[in-house]
Design brief:
Structural class: alpha+beta
Distance between the termini: 31 Å
Strand content: 15-25%
Length: 258
């Protein structure tokens, strides 16, 4: 039995404490930066209207970056791959192996998922067995390498049922090359030769063009510019929001290779 786990989990790191402690630390850091920045601006007599906006944007960008990094590490810790003696390849997200729990509130639900993941990771590390609920990878239909992960669309089997599912292999596993070779072996030659059109590229182009045009209309219809009728401003602002949401949607789909 070959098992691919996060090196930190193999070394005994507590997944639950790391994830929840990191989340609380990011939230506390945001509060401290916002409060400290506000106090600093007041003491130095800086313009609150200008610098408060800069502080808000900078702190928000920092927290988003830290949250994305923590989420990526947490996902890599929670996802485990298995290759048994019969050459069957399985993968399991230990955060989703227990779905029957009823928890009130999104925060408590997330905490319960991470606690369940920690228990499953300890069982896998100690017993070296495939947990019930793991999905067997039958065939890899599409595979895309991203800067931090591999995005796959696979045919999988779970509880006797075969269906298509997305799978993300985050980089950083020990013997990662071996795992990628096993996935490549299950990629049919017809899938490797197929030049599939990527609808997300066209969607990103259209939504990006819509966003760009809407922002331009907002700029020139603003009272400070007044080069276009002011009535255009709010409809263009709404279209800009639609374009931004669509661009984010297609970007996520492209990253997941869907």
């Amino acid at each position: 039995m070959k098992i691919w786990m996060s090196p930190q989990i193999q070394a005994g790191r507590n997944h639950f404490l790391h994830t929840m402690g990191g989340s609380l630390g990011i939230a506390l850091l945001g509060v401290l930066l916002a409060a400290g920045g506000s106090v600093c601006m007041i003491r130095r007599g800086m313009s609150m209207r200008t610098w408060s906006l800069f502080l808000c944007v900078a702190v928000t960008a920092l927290l988003i970056g830290l949250a994305v990094r923590l989420g990526r590490r947490s996902a890599r810790d929670a996802i485990v791959f298995f290759l048994d003696e019969q050459d069957h390849l399985f993968w399991a997200d230990t955060r989703t192996l227990c779905r029957g729990r009823s928890v009130m509130g999104a925060t408590w639900h997330a905490a319960a998922q991470e606690a369940d993941a920690q228990r499953w990771l300890e069982r896998i590390r100690n017993r070296q067995t495939v947990p019930p609920g793991a999905m067997e990878v039958l065939k890899v239909e599409r595979m895309r390498e991203n800067p931090h992960d591999y995005a796959l669309i696979c045919q999988v089997r779970k509880n006797g049922r075969v269906f298509r599912s997305g799978c993300t292999v985050l980089k950083g596993y020990e013997d990662e090359d071996w795992l990628i070779r096993e996935l490549e072996r299950r990629r049919g030659w017809e899938n490797q030769l197929e030049q599939r059109e990527d609808p997300s590229a066209a969607g990103m182009a259209v939504s990006g063009l819509l966003l760009l045009c809407s922002v331009a209309v907002c700029f020139f219809s603003h009272p400070a510019q007044a080069r276009l009728p002011q009535n255009f401003y709010f409809p263009a602002l709404a279209l800009a929001g639609v374009g931004a949401a669509a661009l984010l949607y297609w970007s996520v789909r492209r990253h997941r290779n869907e």
